[in-house]
Design a protein that fits this description.
heterotrimer, A mainly alpha (236), B alpha/beta (242), C mainly alpha (228), A: 236 residues, mainly alpha, C: 228 residues, globular
């Protein structure tokens, strides 16, 4: 506490718009690539194409929540405000990809299983994870004090991340003990190439989203710090 | 530990605190020597209570440093807390516990030996007749006296008192002054938030006025503090009149 | 020495919470009454077919306990907030986790007692016959209750001090409790029909692991939650 307020600097404009454009281009390119290279699935036909969005979205969602975990821990450890802002940005982006995963899963499910929703282990634990992070974002919305908001949401984020494997395990047991196997089968190599290419593109998009969200949060905080400097200026 | 810092009982260096977009404290710097009793004045919303809560480890300053006997209130909370006696605006009692049970809880939390004579503290604050009654039925003044008894358990070297005279009758005010003066004479420091000077006449060394979140004024108390011998007599006189 | 002080502080907090709760019986009575009421409502939703009721008994029991328990957790901090007692509580020296453990003990007894009432009523209403393996069933209830109380007490420390405490606590708590609910309901269900598939053991292990992991995690994180 000997330093003046913890500093969050206003972001420099930099090259992020360019990065965003590149990410978008990469996303389009990998989508086109996998559409052209992947033969229609024996059972699913052209429906398997949705997996190139669905699966990378799910993976990216996990990456986001891993970022939340790491930066929440770091915030509690070091108390630097920008860590909290980054965790929050990752949680928001993660919740979006989480929602996308759910919706795409349902779109896949309708023709594949004939219903919009089955209590499949994957879908169900994704839904639970979504609810956990809705809670995280709601908590942030309900608390004004930045320090309190930071510490509380870090605790919620860490516990939430800790719960992911346990939820996954419990839901899987719950399903398998009551049969109804999941419908994912082993896939040919060519599918995996498209999958990983898309995952790479999704990661770029994710990085872009988080960065822009983080920048926006930093801009707000920097403006608040400027008001602090103005408020304290008279005496110091 | 023998730095120039630790010789001060209470010290603030550019303490600032924000709630949302509002700056309640805008850089307060002040120092209290051991043994010094200082009244903190200022209009409603000027930031007196916020400053007291920062010294009381209940709020962290947004900027600046606050020290109690050289210990940073934001980082060395445990060391600070073992020095403090904090009387908040609200009594902070448990309504469904009796007077003695409230003290017993405090004694246990402080790690005092079990044999500690709680009833003596209750007698001293004039609650000897309601030791086993629940706090729910107490008047505001009685609750404040009970909070004072709990404060006495701590043998604090720094007293932080937020409008300690509110709800107290004349005898209660005299008792409060007696306790503050005792602490000061024993080498402890006290920071007393006041909204009027009259009840604290003869108790304070100095007054500090906070205005708009800054120290606007610091001057000797209008009625100089009664020094040990006279203070004892005054206290005895007040006690006798009760 | 310091450890003995901490034990004393834990005892002080548990004693204070339980004494307060015992003297204002209205709190416990209304929470238990709510648990029973929810149970009755489940009966309307699922009954009156006896077999359907029996199949759904475990789920109804746990959900009733959960909904009623949520009220207990916020109450536990209500006492601290009413007259600024929390400010005083935080002023005492010593580690913060003792506050948490003290409240855990008090809340466990509170929720445990409520659970006993809800279970007793549930057994009667849902026409459940007590299985031979009732000690295991009791273990499941204990482990499930601990999981509920650990996270409930932890999240209520935040929710009770925020705006919108009524919404926030269930919103944070329920998704986190999905493993507890699944495990407790599945294990109870299995034990009630004689555990033919030997699946209760796995669930009990999961419950135990969950309780342990989150007890340690919340014990560590409590300071960051209460001290701000």
């Amino acid at each position: 506490m000997t330093t003046a307020a913890p500093t969050v600097e206003a972001p420099r404009p930099a090259r992020w718009p360019v990065f965003g454009a590149v990410s978008l281009a990469a996303l389009v390119a990998t989508q086109v690539f996998s559409f052209l290279t992947s033969p229609p699935d024996q059972n699913m036909g052209q429906l398997e194409k949705i997996l190139y969005v669905h699966v990378p979205a799910a993976w990216v969602m996990f990456v986001c929540f891993a970022i939340v975990l790491v930066y929440s821990l770091r915030f509690l450890w070091k108390g630097r405000e920008d860590d909290d802002l980054l965790a929050a940005a990752a949680a928001e982006v993660g919740a979006i990809f989480n929602g996308l995963t759910l919706v795409l899963g349902m779109i896949w499910g309708k023709p594949a299983w004939g219903v919009w929703w089955v209590w499949d282990a994957r879908l169900t634990s994704t839904l639970v994870l979504f609810l956990v992070f809705v809670g995280y974002l709601a908590l942030r919305a309900f608390v004004e004090d930045p320090q309190r908001r930071g510490q509380w949401s870090a605790a919620v984020g860490i516990l939430g991340a800790l719960n992911v494997p346990i939820v996954w395990m419990s839901v899987t047991w719950w399903r398998t003990l009551h049969q109804m196997p999941s419908s994912m089968r082993s896939m040919a190599k060519i599918y995996w190439v498209g999958m990983f290419a898309n995952f790479g593109a999704f990661l770029l998009v994710m990085a872009y989203f988080i960065r822009r969200r983080y920048d926006a949060a930093c801009t707000v905080r920097a403006a608040e710090h400027a008001s602090q400097a103005a408020a304290l200026g008279g005496l110091d | 530990m023998v730095t120039s810092k630790s010789e001060l009982a209470i010290e603030a260096q550019g303490v600032a605190r924000r709630f949302g977009a509002r700056w309640v404290l805008r850089g307060v710097s002040l120092q209290l020597e051991p043994g010094e009793i200082v009244g903190l004045l200022g209009a409603n919303g000027s930031g007196k209570t916020t400053l007291l809560r920062i010294f009381g480890t209940l709020l962290k300053p947004t900027a600046g440093t606050a020290l109690i006997y050289g210990h940073d209130v934001a980082r060395e909370t445990d060391a600070v807390r073992s020095e403090l006696g904090f009387l908040a605006h609200t009594p902070g009692l448990y309504d469904d516990l009796t007077a003695r049970e409230n003290l017993k809880f405090g004694a246990m939390m402080l790690g005092l030996p079990a044999g500690n004579n709680l009833d003596a503290a209750l007698e001293r604050v004039g609650l000897g007749h309601v030791i086993n009654e629940r706090v729910r039925g107490f008047s505001a003044g009685m609750q404040r006296r009970l909070a004072l008894a709990r404060l006495l358990l701590r043998h604090a070297r720094v007293l932080l008192l937020d409008e300690p005279y509110s709800n107290l009758d004349t005898a209660g005010i005299a008792l409060m002054n007696e306790i503050i003066t005792e602490a000061g004479n024993a080498g402890g420091a006290a920071l007393v938030v006041l909204h009027e000077l009259a009840p604290a006449a003869g108790v304070l060394d100095r007054t500090i006025t906070i205005e708009n979140g800054r120290v606007a004024d610091s001057r000797p108390a209008p009625v100089p503090r009664l020094r040990p011998r006279t203070a004892e007599r005054a206290a005895a006189g007040a006690g006798g009149g009760r | 020495m310091a450890f003995r002080d901490d034990v004393r502080r834990i005892r002080a907090i548990a004693w204070k919470d339980l004494t307060t709760e015992r003297r204002s019986k209205a709190g416990f009575n209304s929470v238990a009454a709510l648990g029973v009421t929810i149970l009755v409502l489940f009966g309307f939703a699922l009954g009156p077919d006896a077999q359907a009721l029996r199949d759904a008994a475990a789920g109804a029991l746990w959900l009733s306990a959960l909904f009623a328990g949520v009220l207990a957790f916020n109450r536990s901090y209500q006492v601290e907030l009413e007259s600024g007692a929390l400010d005083q509580l935080l002023q005492y020296p010593g580690p913060r986790w003792v506050i948490y453990v003290g409240k855990l003990i008090a809340n466990s007894l509170f929720v445990g007692l409520m659970l006993i009432i809800v279970i007793a009523v549930g057994i009667a209403l849902f026409q459940v016959s007590i299985p031979a393996a009732w000690p295991s069933l009791l273990g499941v209830f204990a482990l499930g209750a601990v999981g509920l109380v650990v996270l409930g007490t932890f999240y209520a420390a935040m929710a009770s001090r925020s705006r919108a405490r009524e919404v926030l606590l269930p919103l944070l708590l329920f998704p986190m409790l999905v493993p507890v609910l699944l495990a407790a309901i599945s294990a109870s269900k299995a034990l009630l029909v004689g555990d033919m598939m030997h699946e209760a053991g796995a669930w009990i292990k999961l419950l135990g692991a969950y309780d342990l992991i989150f007890f340690v995690a919340t014990l560590w994180a409590f300071e960051y939650v209460i001290e701000v």
